[in-house]
Structure formats: structure tokens, C-alpha cells
């Protein structure tokens, strides 16, 4: 089925913003040289270059310091207004909190302080571009604000067209995630560059606040495109819920906080339309929806279903199927979905959250990367290799002090979902 047709999701449309530019200028004050006791004054260089023009509105204030550290950054516009921003964790640049204005002139003043207290100030003045002949690239942030998500919820950004390899590092540098309490992770790209995921080595802790900024507006991407928007969202992580579906037993095991709370008979995809095996994430929930498979292989039907929870872009759902209750627990008769009774489906809707992990095992076909939010369908080591930027070597899964429950795991094709199911 065509996984490039989109279905409405809890999604936030996002955009793009340019990165740090080359070139630098520095003004040292006082002059560099040996201070009493032999301590040299710090040196600082700043980007964008002084008097640079047509600077992207996504520009950051790049800082390079020797013999000291950056102690303050002040950026003002041509009307004397101070621009709000904050430094990157690695100190390589200072990031404005919003895209800069087009066709405006800005002055950055960076103060560096040495160990002996000596200071040096670097300054640069630059002008942003008024417009661009490049086409805006479409991006979508699948992490809505003011929601409560499951502990396996990845931050997902999708792109149309896909991001070429040469541009992925620049794009990734403009994607920010903060967690409270801190739980660091990394981004990982799908091989084709159409989607990138962010997660930590282990599941989010319940109660964590996750704040995301996709700061892509105006960012040059490849030769033809710029990013389309700058978006932010903040949401909470809820209780830990995981569903395990075993084709051998035709049973779904429902776990909450690691404890088995219910087993539910299921009917999975028949051999001609098998369900996928792998680690998936609940992507959306519908009390009522319609599956329209006209034009799909082995499809051709239209059916209204209740209590449906999407697992893949290709149209695999968990949903109420009163017509197959006699087969549930015994025989696979669906078109790829996990059929459950109406009573069980209604109960599940009150227990699960978007972002909960669903593990299916023992079916005829494996889950394809990118067919859904597949960030957990790989080891942490393999996931980290998908980052376009270096991953801190100390970032690894926490050691487990007890055997994981069956739903636990240790540890970015532009989604175009099919509305089919079965």
C-alpha cells in the first residue's frame, strides 16, 4: 500500500531556519599579550562575519574562544531592541529564541573572560536577507503541545522532500529537545532522509516534561530549499503502558508499570495480508473512523470501525471487530489489523495513550523502518548510528536491576498513511 498518503494526526506543522555562517571578526579589549604572572588574555572570534549581508534569518552567533570562556552574549537589532536567546550546551554558538527579522541589521557583542579575570570583547554587525528564491521545504513535527504521551513516544519530524545526507547535520543542529528531569538522547535519521526521530536510550520516565523546538525557518537546506517554520511544543509523559501481541497464542498482554493487568484474545492478519512484527508506537486514537481500501491490493471494502488505534502508516490498527469475535484467540482473519472484541477495544481506549509501545511477534513479515514511528524497533547502538552529529560516548541505556517486563526494551519516508485496516 502507498504509505505516502497522509492521514490527519495530532501533528504540528513545522519549518526551517539557517545555521551559523562562516567568517568572523574580533575586537580584543584590552590588547592581547602576557598579563602579570604570564597569563594571556582570551581571544574571541564571532560569526556571522562583520558587515556580512544576506544572512539567513536562522543565523546563530557563533563563538570561538581561546584562553577563556564566553561569559555574555548581547544581540541587538537596528532599533536598539535586545534579542532573547541562549547558548548551546557545547558553547559553540548562541541561539536566538525566534527567527531573526528579514532585511534587518543586527550587532552581536560577545564577552570572553580568562582564568585571571581578563576580558576580551568580540563584535560583529550583519544584515539578514530580505527574501530568498529558494522553495520552502515542508516539515511536520509529530509532537503536539499540551498532551500526555506514553513513555515510548519519540519526537518525530518528517520532511517533504527528504533531506539529503549532506544537509542532515545542519538540520539536526536546529532541532532541540529539553527534558525535565534531564534525560538526554539523540536524533536518528531514516536511511532515505524523510524522517528523523529523537529518543533517549531508555523509555521516558513517567512525569517527565518534554519541550521541543524545530527551529528550521529560513535554514538553507541543500541547493534548492529553505526550512518553512519555527515551531515549539511542550507535553508531559504519562503512565507506563505496554501491549504485547503474540501470534503464536493469539493473545494480547496488557502491562501497566511492568505488571500484567489483562490478556485479550486477538485475530491478526491472515496469510495474504499479514500483520507486521516489531516494536511500534500508538500514533493516534479514534472512537470512530472509516477504513476505505478501494484501490488497495486485497482491499476494495469500506467499513466503519470503533475504538481504533493506529500502529503504522500502512493502515495497521488495533480496533473493535465484532464480526470476528468467534475467531479471536484462534484464527487470523484480518487485513493486517489486530482485531479485538468491542468490549476489549472500549476498555483499551481508556487505558492506552498515544506513545505507548506495542510489540507484535511471530507474524510472517517484519515491520519496515519508517512504517509508523519505528524508533524503538532497533537497538540503541544502531539507533545512535543514525545520527548526523556525534553522539556523546557516555550516552547508553541504564543497567537494569531486575528482569524487564515483556513490553520493555533497552536501549527518521515522509509518512503518508493508508486509511486501510481490517
UniProtKB/TrEMBL annotation:
Residues 390-406 have a biased composition (Pro residues). One of its GO terms (molecular function) is peptidoglycan L,D-transpeptidase activity. InterPro entries: Big_10 (IPR041280), LD-transpeptidase (IPR050979), LD_TPept_cat_dom (IPR005490), Transpep_catalytic_dom (IPR038063). CDD domains: YkuD_like. The keyword Cell wall biogenesis/degradation applies. GO terms for cellular component: extracellular region. Transmembrane segments: none annotated. One of its GO terms (biological process) is regulation of cell shape. Residues 1-22 form the signal peptide. Residues 30-51, 387-422 are annotated as: Disordered. Residues 241-361 form the L,D-TPase catalytic domain. Residues 31-43, 407-422 have a biased composition (Low complexity). Pathway: Cell wall biogenesis; peptidoglycan biosynthesis. Keywords: Acyltransferase, Cell shape, Cell wall biogenesis/degradation, Peptidoglycan synthesis, Signal, Transferase. PANTHER family: L,D-TRANSPEPTIDASE, L,D-TRANSPEPTIDASE YCIB-RELATED. This is L,D-transpeptidase catalytic domain.
Amino acid at each position: 500500500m502507498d504509505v505516502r498518503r497522509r492521514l490527519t494526526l495530532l501533528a504540528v506543522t513545522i519549518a526551517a531556519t539557517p545555521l551559523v555562517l562562516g567568517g568572523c571578526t574580533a575586537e580584543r579589549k584590552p590588547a592581547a599579550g602576557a598579563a602579570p604572572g604570564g597569563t594571556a588574555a582570551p581571544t574571541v572570534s564571532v560569526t556571522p562575519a562583520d558587515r556580512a549581508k544576506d544572512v539567513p534569518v536562522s543565523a546563530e552567533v557563533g563563538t570561538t574562544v581561546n584562553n577563556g570562556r564566553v561569559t555574555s552574549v548581547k544581540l541587538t537589532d537596528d532599533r536598539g531592541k535586545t534579542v532573547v536567546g541562549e547558548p548551546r550546551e557545547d558553547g559553540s554558538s548562541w541561539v536566538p529564541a525566534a527567527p531573526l527579522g528579514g532585511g534587518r541589521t543586527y550587532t552581536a557583542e560577545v564577552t570572553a573572560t580568562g582564568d585571571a579575570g581578563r576580558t576580551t570583547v568580540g563584535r560583529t554587525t550583519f544584515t539578514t536577507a530580505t527574501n530568498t528564491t529558494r522553495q520552502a521545504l515542508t516539515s511536520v513535527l509529530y509532537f503536539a503541545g499540551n498532551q500526555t504521551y506514553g513513555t515510548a513516544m519519540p519526537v518525530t519530524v518528517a520532511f517533504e522532500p527528504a533531506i539529503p545526507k549532506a544537509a542532515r547535520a545542519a538540520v539536526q543542529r536546529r532541532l532541540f529537545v529539553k527534558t525535565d528531569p534531564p534525560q538526554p538522547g539523540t536524533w536518528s535519521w531514516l536511511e532515505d532522509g524523510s524522517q528523523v526521530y529523537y529518543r533517549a536510550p531508555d523509555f521516558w520516565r513517567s512525569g517527565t516534561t518534554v519541550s521541543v523546538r524545530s527551529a528550521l525557518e529560513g535554514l538553507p537546506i541543500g541547493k534548492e530549499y529553505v526550512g518553512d517554520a519555527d515551531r515549539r511544543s511542550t507535553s508531559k509523559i504519562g503512565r507506563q503502558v505496554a501491549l504485547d501481541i503474540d501470534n503464536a497464542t493469539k493473545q494480547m498482554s496488557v502491562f501497566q508499570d511492568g505488571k500484567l493487568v489483562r490478556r485479550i484474545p486477538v485475530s491478526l492478519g491472515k496469510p495474504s495480508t499479514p500483520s507486521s512484527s516489531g516494536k511500534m508506537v500508538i500514533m493516534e486514537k479514534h472512537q470512530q473512523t472509516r477504513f476505505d481500501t478501494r484501490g488497495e491490493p486485497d482491499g476494495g471494502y469500506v467499513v466503519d470501525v470503533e475504538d481504533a488505534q493506529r500502529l503504522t502508516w500502512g493502515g495497521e490498527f488495533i480496533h473493535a471487530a465484532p464480526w470476528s469475535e468467534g475467531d479471536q484467540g484462534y484464527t487470523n482473519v484480518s487485513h493486517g489489523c489486530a482485531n479485538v472484541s468491542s468490549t476489549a477495544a472500549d476498555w483499551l481506549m481508556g487505558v492506552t495513550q498515544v506513545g505507548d509501545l506495542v510489540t507484535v511477534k511471530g507474524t510472517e513479515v517484519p515491520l519496515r523502518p519508517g512504517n509508523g514511528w519505528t524508533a524503538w524497533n532497533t537497538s540503541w547502538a544502531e539507533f545512535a548510528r543514525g545520527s548526523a552529529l556525534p553522539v556523546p560516548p557516555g550516552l547508553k541505556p541504564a543497567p537494569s536491576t531486575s528482569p524487564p517486563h515483556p513490553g520493555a526494551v533497552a536501549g527518521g519516508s515522509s509518512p503518508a498513511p493508508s486509511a486501510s485496516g481490517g
